[in-house]
Amino acid sequence: MKFSFLKLSLFATSGLAVALEHGSEYANSMGEIAMLYPSDREWSEEAETTAPCGSYSDIQNRTDFPLDNGFVALVAKSQKAWSVSLKISYKKDPTENSDFDEWANGNVTNEISIGHTCFYMPDQPSSVNSGDVATIQLEYMALEDNNDNETHYACADIKFVEDSVFKVTEEALSCFNATDNDYYSYSDYGDSTVQADETSTTASSSTSKLSTAPSSSSSSAGAVVNGLSDNSSSLLVSFIAGIFALAGIF
């Protein structure tokens, strides 16, 4: 699926509202890490260390999520979090940690950079069908004000849809990386590998071993974006960089 630069520009423009929402003001209403897609339940500082979902909110709305080539986009406001993992429950209303199964082998990442990071997840088992529901659990460690290391939680409630249905939605464009390491990438929906300087990220829906770009100390970033000319990709990268600078997320 190839996107024209016009479509990508429209995506970047619509992403401005999301970026602004996840700027400095929004940072006061989230934990160290939150789910950008699918959107998580309302955050509460008092409940964020309470399993399994770190929120006083019950299930409200469910986000459409593809059966195949699904991804989770995370936003981090600091580097105080580590041992990030994602789990899933196919129960309609999970209430215990034991209701969730490991979604990927081991942690998604031991460290996460400030900004947005996207992970492609394993495809759903054949027993899961369009219209079925699930809840994704984000779990990570973070340092509390009392200097204790605490486990933190967040949950996103989803409804499965066919991959072909999801591809034409706005959410299909929400998997991208933009971190304080000047790393920017755009995924052409699931089958591109993007490199910036000497850092790289690999997104694969065919394996549960997930990886993201390692830290880079370089102050200048290059970008190779699948399906775009050099000029178009540079413009898109600059646009996204400006969005996050405007939002004050870095």
UniProtKB/TrEMBL annotation:
Source species: Dekkera bruxellensis
Subcellular location: Cell membrane
Protein topology in the membrane: Lipid-anchor; GPI-anchor
Domain Copper acquisition factor BIM1-like: 30-180
Alphabetized InterPro entries for the sequence: BIM1-like, BIM1-like_dom
Leader sequence segment: 1-19
Region Disordered, residue ranges: 200-220
Domain of life per record: Eukaryota
The UniProt record lists the keyword Membrane: yes
One cellular component term from this protein's GO annotations in UniProt: plasma membrane
Official protein name in the record: DEBR0S1_13806g1_1
Keyword set, alphabetical order: Cell membrane, Glycoprotein, GPI-anchor, Lipoprotein, Membrane, Signal
Major localization class: membrane
UniProt keyword annotation of Membrane present: yes
